[in-house]
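Appendix B. Worked example

We walk through a single record from start to finish. Start with the input: the chain for YbaK/aminoacyl-tRNA synthetase-associated domain isoform 2, Hibiscus syriacus, length 318.
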Amino acid sequence: MGYSKDQLLARLKELQIEFSQYEHPVVLTVEAQAKYVGNMVGVLSKNLFLKDKKHRYYVVSALADTKVDLKVLSQRLGLGKGGLRMAPEEALGEILQVPLGCVTPFAVVNESARHVSLLLDQGFKSQECCIFHPLSNDMSISLNAQGLDTFLKSIGRNPSYIDLEANPPIGKDQPPDLAAFVPSDSPVLSDLPEKAPSAQDSTGKSVGAATNSAAVTAKAVKPSGNAQNVKEKPVDSVRPSIPAADAGKFVEELLDRASALLISEDSIKQHGGQLGAEVANNIKKCLREDIKNLATIFKNTAYTEGFYAGTRYQPKRL
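Next comes the structure step. The output line below is what the pipeline stores for this chain.
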């Protein structure tokens, strides 16, 4: 088991790091987090858990309104234009040991993350305070860059702040400026089938990974030989179509189908049409926002754009 929220908060107090905390419902995007912590002193952050082709991992933590181009960042690391992608969900659990939507600089506290490279937005240093999840997305804490530095140094990390919006020329006489941040070693994961990349916003989209400017095309995974020999059954009648970009329509279709299943004709005849309609409306009212959040995450995962959800939110400068 990795560090818990309570253990992290206790560690910050032990190090005499000043911070404020605010509990709120579980949030999966920067926008959702902003609704609950808008009155806190500080600016929101977005966080991304990445991997390269050699299975080396990176946590990128930036201000919510910092524009980060993954292709440019990949080139600056010396990995080529397409050298970075979202880390798979099993790596999120095995290496950072945090749930989906909880990637932050604090996630490198675990020993399993010792080979993960941490890239911090230089914009953090000019802010009075910055807001992060303390390994759990049902709470946000606000602290300054000095406090974050103190914590990172206490776990053997030398904080590295870089200009994530920079796009310096790279060529024969101009080597990649961030090549030193490429991990020298890579962790060994259990032999698990790679799943779809995790969306990390705040939180990334987070979420996020988090976290939350350039679109990255997701590669299709070729099915295994065994899977190809299995005759596929038609599922159109039971599986709703997923619109490419409109999560709202996807949610409405899910709700309509759920209502139709739960409120059968026999049930309506037995209890009255008015009761059926009332129950269906209540289902939609109670579940709409939660399912919409999930649908948005699924969409962002498919397009590996969870990180960029934060770029569409422009927080107020305090």
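Two observations about the output. The CA atoms of residues 224 and 230 lie 10 Å apart. Confidence is low (pLDDT under 50) at residues 190-196, 201-245, 303-311.
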